[in-house]
Amino acid sequence: AQSVAQPEDQVNVAEGNPLTVKCTYSVSGNPYLFWYVQYPNRGLQFLLKYITGDNLVKGSYGFEAEFNKSQTSFHLKKPSALVSDSALYFCAVRNQAGTALIFGKGTTLSVSS
Amino acid sequence: GAGVSQSPSNKVTEKGKDVELRCDPISGHTALYWYRQRLGQGLEFLIYFQGNSAPDKSGLPSDRFSAERTGESVSTLTIQRTQQEDSAVYLCASSFTGEWETQYFGPGTRLLVL
Asked: Does the pLDDT of residue A70 top 60, yes or no?
């Protein structure tokens, strides 16, 4: 069965420090992986995706993610966190039929000043 | 350009009533998706439309849920005889065709069933 796991409900980091939001996946075949961010009372905004090629993917707002096939992980990273990065982050993988995204439960990122 | 729009933004209804939610996808996007987000949880896939192909309805939770889309335009999600467990945010997304294409989400409709 295809699934996505975000093992941390919440990640706390101080402004200026690096941040990592973890994601692991289980899928047959080649994974298409995505990260989205959700601000309060708003829809999801696309951050980045991995389809193929370079394992390090760069996206919006200075975020990047590293695809690791052997560990089946796709962790989201940022070298220096901002208070404005505080939000709910979702990892997702395309389902095998290619008709939907399977989402993790989300990780709340809290950046303190 | 304009993003995905949804209406209404909020809907309060009584148990047993029918509701209809609307989604306007990004112009030119052939694929359209509906998801449900319950409080404190991730998104659950409901239904997928791609052009004139038969929709993937595998995520619809019961026969009270249905959705329509005419061509590559507006879609409506209908919930009949609403139940309290239907309370959630219903999100619509659209994308160009292709499995790797990014889905762009609307702001959602927040449904509360009393």
From this structure: yes
The answer to whether the Cβ–Cβ distance between A46 and B33 falls below 8 Å is no
Q: Would you state the structure tokens that stand for residue B69, as one six-digit string?
A: 């889309």
pLDDT of residue B100 exceeding 80, the answer is no
Whether the pLDDT of residue B9 is over 70: the answer is: yes
**In this model, does residue B67 exceed pLDDT 60?**
yes
Q: What is the Cα–Cα distance from B76 to B65, expressed in whole angstroms?
A: 11
Q: Is B34 on the interface with A (CB under 8 A)?
A: no
The alpha carbons of chain A give a radius of gyration, in whole angstroms, of: 13
**Residues in B touching A34 (Cβ below 8 Å):** 102-103
Q: What is the mean pLDDT of residues B14-26?
A: 97
- Give chain B positions within 8 Å (CB) of A99: 33, 45, 48, 50, 56, 58
Distance CA B68, CA A17 (A): 47
Residue appearing with tokens 């951050």 = A47
pLDDT of A29 > 90? The answer is: no
Query: Which chain A residues have a beta carbon less than 8 Å from that of B102?
Result: 34, 46, 49
The C-alpha torsion from B72 through A99 and B60 to A24, rounded to 10°, is -140
Inter-chain touch A105–B41, beta carbons under 8 Å = yes
